[in-house]
Amino acid sequence: MKILVPTKRVPDPATNIQVLPDGLGIATENVKWVINPFDEIAIEEALRIKERLGTGEVVLAAVGQKSWQEQLRTGLAMGADRAILVLNEKALDSIAVASLLAKIVADEKPELIIMGKQAIDDDSNQIGQMLAEMLGWPQATFASKVEIKERRCTVVREVDGGLETLAFALPAVITTDLRLNEPRYASLPGIMKARKKELKEVPAESLGVELTPRLKVRALRPPSKRQAGRKVSSVAELVNLLHSEAKLI
Amino acid sequence: MSDVLVFAEHKNGHLPKTTLVALGAGLELAAKQAGKCVVVAAGEGTEELAAHLAGYGVAEVIALEHPALKNYVADAHAQALAALAKELGVQAVLASATAVGKDLMPRLAARLGAPMASEVIAFGEDGTLVRPMYAGNVLATVELSGPLRVITVRATAFEVAARGQSAAPVRKVAAAIDPSALKTELVSFEETKSERPQLSEARIVVSGGRGLKAGENFKTVLEPLADALGAAMGASRAAVDAGFVPNDLQVGQTGKVVAPQLYLAVGISGAIQHLAGMKDSKVIVAVNKDEEAPIFNVADYGLVADLFKAVPEMVEEIKKLKHS
Ligand SMILES: Cc1cc2nc3c(=O)[nH]c(=O)nc-3n(C[C@H](O)[C@H](O)[C@H](O)COP(=O)(O)OP(=O)(O)OC[C@H]3O[C@@H](n4cnc5c(N)ncnc54)[C@H](O)[C@@H]3O)c2cc1C
Predict the structure, then answer these.
(1) DSSP-derived 3-state class of residue A206
(2) Regions in chain B scoring below 50 on pLDDT
């Protein structure tokens, strides 16, 4: 089975994000760039499916700049077979990225797409669902368990109030939640092998997609900071303050 | 003029608070744009619910009916809502950023070819929208262009719609659904049963983290505190990952966002991803044995203590208070 895993490069989740004084971006000097954590889970799941079936191909895709090669190589080092980087310098909105990915899908014809439920930079949580609709495929977002038997897929989803199970025939789009798996680290031999794996670059303009964003970011600012309050010295004092000062209990 | 269609998520005819917030936000947006707010309840046998929705100051209620809409599934709902949005000619479709809203609205946006903004927290006067990025460390002012916009709103950022005097007209619409395009089967729903208030609706939330050390301690140590306060339970990702509590208790960037009157973080360090889900709470209390824990930077009242000693004491003090 061919599995496509769209990925994004994002700041390491532990980064202390600072808005630039002009409000047009974030400071990037000290940012360590990583594969979006949810996409790492997606790569892991794709690799496990391939390993279970004993056959197949895991293809990574990304829409971004030349520098994103680094994260794609990391994914290849984890065990993905090859990667496609749709080169694009400008800001895109989710619709544009999903449209570009749909073109890659038309070309690659994967039977399954697994991707992160959200990128931890813009926190939009949109592209998997948009891609599924564009392809006319079923979607299972926020997956915490995936089972595939003879082209039929069962997915347990983390939803409000519990766990939901969906079933559908492939092809389909699955987006990953945190509890789906624990991603492996790239091994040293994996890193060596990754250097020789195919990483194809495709200019975004060549795909015939309208790229002008219709979601435009006008300005960024930090949220108002919450003031640290005070330390209390005992439980009795705490409960007393919650009662008499905060008037909450 | 610019009309807004609000998707009223419901569970078997029951309206969660998050839906009333979406209604409140929809009414606010429609008023800002000098348009009207229409609300849609999708399902089977939604008349009663629709009649109830008519009392919230909206211009019209649509009862969108089809057997395929009986339970929520993305493909059927996206089809039906897209057709309705086109028929009504609205300029915005809005829902709450719940698990359903997050699942459905991007699919709907793609079907309508419309741009979408997720988890909006405010509407500007100039048509701009404000939304958090980077786990809430950045607030972005964004603009959606085009004839139609899709929006999810964060439930902690808007007021619930108030019930008004008059009732809006209710119109029953048979949903336009192509059954051959329905490819998803809802197999089962395993509900997390709890007698306590819902996390996203509660006035007080008691959250536990890795510091609780075991699922058993959530029951024996933290639940008595939640019960004494009539609070909902929450948790950090670490506590959920460790299997101490079910997944839908996770508060944070990638879990639920809550803003209760009182949030008690017990044995939680205060990672940015956790803060993203609770830092807008009115009053924050932290109980942690590490005085350097970052949770203290946002806490109104911090208690440096061993939770296994402090929490049972708290329960006793609260009980004393109630009996005095
Ligand atoms: C992509 C991504 C998404 C994430 N999303 C979320 C999210 O949505 N929500 C979330 O919460 N996290 C999320 N995280 C994880 C987050 O980064 C932290 O790892 C997590 O919040 C830590 O949970 P914790 O505070 O319970 O555990 P820890 O950081 O281990 O903290 C435990 C705390 O308990 C205290 N403690 C221990 N024993 C005691 C005791 N006896 N008495 C008192 N205090 C004690 C310790 O001092 C410590 O401060 C995410 C991470 C990533 C990478």
Answers:
(1) helix
(2) none
Chain A from 3 to 62: CB within 8 A of any B CB = 11, 13-14, 16-17, 19, 26, 38
- Give the fold, CATH level 3, of B4-181: Rossmann fold (3.40.50)
Structure tokens at B263: 């949030």
CA dihedral A127, A63, A182, B276 (to 10 degrees): -60
pLDDT of residue B31: 96
Q: How far apart are CA A2 and CA A195, in angstroms?
A: 21
Partner B contacted by A236 (CB < 8 A) = yes
Taking a contact as any Cβ pair under 8 Å apart, which residues of chain B between 39 and 78 contact chain A?
Answer: 73-75, 78
Q: What is the pLDDT of residues B234-286, one digit of tens each?
A: 999 999 999 999 999 999 999 999 999 999 999 999 999 999 999 999 999 99
Beta-carbon separation of A161 and B200 below 8 A: no
Measured in Å, residue B98 CA sits from the centre of ligand 1 at: 23
User: How is residue A76 written in tokens?
Assistant: 């290849």
Quote helix, strand, coil % in chain A, to nearest 5. Answer: 30, 30, 35
Taken in order B178, B181, B186, B187, is the CA torsion positive or negative?
A: positive
Instruction: Please report, for the domain that includes residue A185, its CATH number.
Output: 3.40.50.620
CA-to-CA distance for A100 and B119, rounded, in angstroms? 24
- From the list B289, B290, B284, B285, the residue with the least C-alpha distance to B305 is B289
C-alpha B282/C-alpha A46 separation (Å) is 42
Cα gap A22→A36, rounded to integer Å: 26
| pLDDT score for B1 | 59
CA distance A194 to chain B (A): 30
Sorting pLDDT into bands at 50, 70 and 90, what band is A167?
very high
Whose alpha carbon is nearest atom 31 of ligand 1?
B269
In chain B, where the domains are located: 4-181, 204-323
How many other C-beta atoms can be found within 10 angstroms of the C-beta atom of residue B160?
A: 16
CB contact under 8 A, A123 and B134: yes
A132, A144, A246 member nearest B107 (Cβ): A132
Which candidate, B198, B220, B197, B239, places its Cα nearest to that of B315?
B220
Using an 8 Å CB-CB cutoff, list chain A residues near B239.
none
Order across the sheet with B92-96: list the strands. B116-120, B149-153, B92-96, B4-7, B37-43, B60-65, B170-174
Fold adopted by B204-323: Rossmann fold (3.40.50)
State whether residue A170 sits within 8 Å of chain B by CB.
no
Q: Whose CA is nearest to atom 38 of ligand 1?
A: B211
Q: In chain B, which residues have their Cβ closer than 8 Å to the Cβ of A170?
A: none
Residues of the domain holding A180: 2-221
Chain A with chain B: Cβ pairs closer than 8 A: 257
B125 at A interface, C-beta within 8 A: no
Residue A194: pLDDT band with limits 50, 70, 90 = very high
Give how far Cα B219 sits from Cα of A134, A189, B4, B201, B261, Å.
Answer: 46, 46, 44, 21, 23
B134 neighbourhood in chain A, CB within 8 Å: 11, 17, 26, 120-123
